[in-house]
Amino acid sequence: MPKVPVLHIILFLCTCISTLAAGALQAGANLIEDPMSIWTGLPFAATLMIILLVHEFAHFFASKKHHTLTTLPYFIPAPSFIGTFGAFIKMKSPIVTRAALVDIGASGPVAGFLISVAACIVGLSQSQVIPLQQAQDMINLGDSLLFSLLSWLVLGALPSNADILLHPVAFAGWIGLFVTAMNLFPIGQLDGGHIVYALFGRWHAYVSYVLVGVLAAPGTAAFIWGVGWEGWLMWSVLMLILGLEHPPVVYWEERLDPARRMLGIFALVVFIITFIPAPFQIPWD
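Above: the chain's sequence. Below: its structure in token form.
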């Protein structure tokens, strides 16, 4: 009889609840006075959980295709304004070829990216354009190249004194694009690191060290002078803790076919168009 993945199920259900609560709080619900108002967070929570599920199970099935042992996804609930720290799977055996490395590394971000783009388009069509002064006390989200383009295509050019109040589905899509970019950083053993190692081999280490420095510089400036996003400093420190080296694949001599090279390059282009230099600006009273 197959073993029931109890921990995975509990973490998934807890993350469903935490994202529901986050979505409800975003909608202005008072969960203490009216606990049932948690269901107002469903559009946000359902969209975000679908994006995370698609991302992680794309990794999972790509790993199975290449006979790489892996766990089911671990979802991470969190008491944050989005309700989660994401999800991850743990690989329990080596990746044997460069082709497998590209497939496993690119599958999750590319699949999540496609769902996130769809969520952004649907959500932006239901979002509101509001005067800029109404947005001053709200969390201001940075724009990637792609999100700026989608906003322009769906809502048109905005006046200089206006901003977009995102529908919960659009906000979940924005988070999906942000998570895609974070995973595709070509550093260490992130998804982007897998891809760069498969494409460029020993150059992966140089790219990793340079990019950690590139992230640490503006993160440090933001921490000291309050300009930009200090989260990049924490992200660069985390990358150093996790390690910047990449374990070798078993059969390095097997060359990548053109389709895998194009997939890897496409994933790196996705990173460029979804990267946000300053993702969050949170107003403090």
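The chain has one domain: 6-281.
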